[in-house]
Amino acid sequence: MTIIKVPHKSNPPNARLPNTGKKLENSKENKQKVETIPLLPIIFICSVVTAWCLALLLNSFGIVGNDDWFDRSSQELRNHLQHGTPRYRPHSEAPNDKYNHQIDGYEPFIAIEYGAFGSRVGASVDGVMEIFPVNGRLKTPNSVAYSNEGVLVGQDEMDLPLVNPKNIVYGMRSIMGRRFSTDQTLHRDTEHLPYEVINKEDKPFIRVIVNREDIILSPEQIQAEIFRQLKLAAQDYYGEEITHTIMTVPAYFTDDQRQAVKDSARLAGLEVLRLVNEPTAAAIGYNAQNQEYLNARDESFVLVFNTENADTEVTISSIEDGMFGILSTTRGECTFYPPNPPPGESVDDRYDITTEQYQDRIDKHIAEQLITTVQNALTAAKLRKGDLSILIMTGDESAIHKIQPFLETFFDGKTCLSGVSPDTAVLRGAVYQAEILSGDLDGDWVGAFDITSLTRGIETAGGLFQAIIPRNTLVPTRKFLNVTTIHDKQTKMMFNIYVGERAFVKDNTLLGSFELDYLEEGPAGQVVVEVVCELDTNVRLEIRATELGGGNMAVWNAGEGFDERHMTEDLKKMLVDAERYREEEDVERWRYDGKVADGDEFGIVVVPRKEEVEQKRRQMWK
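Above: the chain's sequence. Below: its structure in token form.
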């Protein structure tokens, strides 16, 4: 109850104050101060309490069926009593109560674009994407400098003249989650870096010198410094703790690299709710602004062309009834300098070239690179260029202006989508996904599916690699395979899980192994085991083996039972080698198929599933 003091200068001898029964003495020497209770605040509070109780009573009898208004009113009242005037939001034009106050555990979900050279963080504010600056920059360079005074994040080298150049570390995205023993290109990628990279436990670590002491840091620790700054920028905006995020990664990232990104974010105090492939996020970002494509009933195909620092990535996706998934993704180069002079052309001849001839040579060079990358993507997606209906370009806008005319010409004049900045399309898509997960989006769910970068499978008799989930399969997915014993009275099966594109397991990468014991004794080929291979939305692998009829089951999980990171072979090299040795390995595979190798005591062979036999039988009768 509020108590106020009211001064009185002259009162009659026997006057009464409201709500009191005390008399005041009239004294010229002393002027007393008395306490009164005003009626107006009491009436207001009683009215509010009465209205509240009446609303509860009506709701309990079902007279008021919709309690949205009541919930909203009570929250607004509670916010006003607890927080008073909404706090100032420095980066927004208009305040919004739901972002200024934490209501019943509400926490905003942010989105982080983890780029090759810079990262940024944003979220949806009043239905509009807002990018939160870090030290005045909307994109924070992926660099960390270690000095005797402390750690500097996101600074250019020119801004750090007093820092030892070997202590300025960058490019963690290209080395985290990789191993020296299984990645032949990792040593080549790190030997020319200005900072020192060492081999520790088969993984790359960085050595810096601070106060004359050696400090060994993992790529995840270094990248966490950048993620932490992005998190703090979002927290400064909202004025509350942020712990959940959506994050974008390259489509070619392996399982190990994706896990490394999650570990790095966890060190920064962030839980990654979902990793979204960059081309998937770009397609979502454009489709969020082009609802006619997003909600199309008929299947259409979209090409996303991303270019950054002379590297290009072409991804082809399908969209149907608001659901879309990646069909293929290929990488290439696109340089804007002229190629080497033709054979027989001397140095003096190069000075005689005209400006038009020089530009024509550059244009031809760009077109050849672009067409090669795009054609490879079309081939992998099993499409023709006439099948594509949507063209999207993302990345460096200055490079896009040079490439876009060639891309549109290749597709017979089809124009690229506009209306969204190519530089922010990826972050926009991630923000859109974060808005969906937070429950703030007033619209339909958009399904975003990723693809497998490499084939998953198991080893069969003879050291053959049996594919279960092929490369470029949409995830989440579930595939089945039946296998049987190769020896009489065989009571155990050994399952070796591999990833790769080669015909023999010796040329692929081992993910892990598990056994299925206590099989029913019988002749070879009698016991049949069903193998179920599943990939979730984060491309995490789980394999279950179940004896049909016996009930014995064993489970192998890459997320729990397998924490090591072995799948780090360079993707491009693996695909090139697979294509180079395909014909030779097909012949070898035919020779070894079904043969039992020496010491293969618990081996397996594939047997047709009942559904496959029935399908082949129906095809024969057609």
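The first helix runs from residue 39 to 60.
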